[in-house]
């Protein structure tokens, strides 16, 4: 007599609970145990199946963390040079284009005096600015810097508190004293350090200025490096390096007006526009020879751009989640074929179609959710690597983790349902005959 074929280990594991519940459905715990044993029975295949989900979730988490870090870095760099600012400058309308034929330096000292005369409680500080590029010398050392003439309010309005020494005062500006506050890099180039610069004379355009303060290291902000600037009183600058407007009034590069808070900037912007239009004799906004830029609007635009870019990159990364879901469905279909006889044995012993459906669906969910958890951990690590490469501090967004995890679970349910349904519909007689 030939020896009876023994059932496979997977079939033996499945028959135990089914034998105990021949006349009823299995409880959820028993189904979960069976599904876990099936996933664990082939660890390598399960790991490879979840790889697409791991990569997708990791990419979403890492990209959103890096994008949020870039967004925060841009905001921090802009606000580090002053917060709640309106920037008034010569040129065309606030769209950024200049009126054809309009002179650039149309904002004058008289305009600034008119703004200050408003005595508006919404204005915390005013810092007019006129600038030029000059070589600066001390002994045998030479450096090149942007020399800015401004008022003492510049220290507060532009977050330019000195690291060593002191900022120039109203008395220095009134008396047009030749005093200077050096940027960090200029002090390093000329003196090798901040402390050595204080009290020393430097030559600007062959004129001697006494160094009374040195600014802290503020990093490079792109087109303008605050470390390579020298600040002097506005009256000193105008008298020594005079710049004229078409009216003969000293012309300014720009004026920074600091508002008391961000909420009042829009109203203040409108009032300043009305004042300058009246002073310049302009009635048509298209003919304005000045522009006012609202820092809040600029930050909102930058945040919108970086947010859209982050969302776009995250969406592209999410495509790999769909690829991972297709991989799960493929493996589950293969698994149904391989375990056809096991399914027949379970049905013959009393397992109902919904038990089979729940088991295979739960296996797919385990694979996708497990991949989602591994992807979150990997994504946080990759986010730190990307942040280091971009020189920003990555910010892990809890919402992105939650969305990626839920998406991974939905992928498991969606792509696991068809194989599970196919397994549940197998005929037990045909399944038992399957070799």
Structural class: alpha+beta
Could you spell the SSE succession in H and E letters? Answer: HHHEHEEHEHEHEEEHEHEHHHHH
Low-pLDDT residue intervals, each spanning 5 or more residues: 1-24, 94-103
User: Number of folding domains?
Assistant: 2
Please state roughly what percent of the residues sit in beta strands, choosing from under 5%, 5-15%, 15-25%, 25-35%, 35-45% or over 45%. Answer: 15-25%
User: Helix content range of the residues, please?
Assistant: 40-55%
What does this structure look like?
By secondary structure, the protein is α+β, with helices and mostly antiparallel strands. It has two domains: 199 residues, no CATH class; 173 residues, no CATH class. It has 14 helices and ten strands. It has a six-stranded mixed beta barrel. Strand 2 and strand 3 form a beta hairpin. It is elongated, with a radius of gyration of 35 Å. The protein starts with 8 loop residues before the first helix and ends with a helix. The N terminus is likely disordered.
Spell out the key features of this protein.
435 residues; alpha+beta; 2 domains; 6-stranded mixed beta barrel; 14 helices; 10 strands; 54% helix; elongated; disordered N terminus
Give the secondary structure arrangement, pairings included.
Blueprint lengths: L8 H12 L7 H13 L2 H38 L4 E6 L18 H9 L5 E16 L2 E10 L3 H4 L6 E2 L4 H5 L4 E4 L1 H8 L9 E4 L2 E8 L14 E5 H7 L13 E6 L5 H15 L10 E5 H44 L1 H9 L4 H38 L7 H27 L3 H6 L2
Parallel strand pairs: 3-8, 5-7
Antiparallel strand pairs: 1-9, 1-10, 2-3, 2-6, 2-9, 4-7, 5-8, 6-7
Helix pairs in contact: 1-2, 1-11, 2-12, 3-10, 3-12, 3-13, 10-12, 10-13, 12-13
